[in-house]
Amino acid sequence: MSHEHHHPAEERQANILRLRKVVGQLNGVEKMLDQDRDCSEILAQLISARRAIKSLSEKLIHGHLHHCIAESRDRKDGTKKLKELVTVLERYVE
Known about the structure:
By secondary structure, the chain is mainly α. It has one domain (9-92): Metal-sensitive repressor, helix protomer (Methane Monooxygenase Hydroxylase, Chain G, domain 1, Up-down Bundle). 80% of the residues lie in helices and 0% in strands. The protein is built from three helices and no strands. It has helices at 9-34, 39-69, 75-92. α1 runs antiparallel to α2 (39-69) and α2 runs antiparallel to α3. The protein is elongated and about 55 Å long. The two termini are 20 Å apart.
């Protein structure tokens, strides 16, 4: 499912920053576990990381719809990309 396409640099950078936030949160969870911190504090951090992953996923879905599918070369290519997205989204909502 690899495609040659380019996303706007600003959008790509925003997504990288979102990902770095998630990585930082998960690194924080690892430290909290290592320090044997309170379970509710750890769970709160995990909830925050899960929300950040959900937000990043939604941004990527939105971007894919607008930059990859809507701007497809032709209808056949757009249909193929849409089918691929549906397959990925079926796994996303499991």
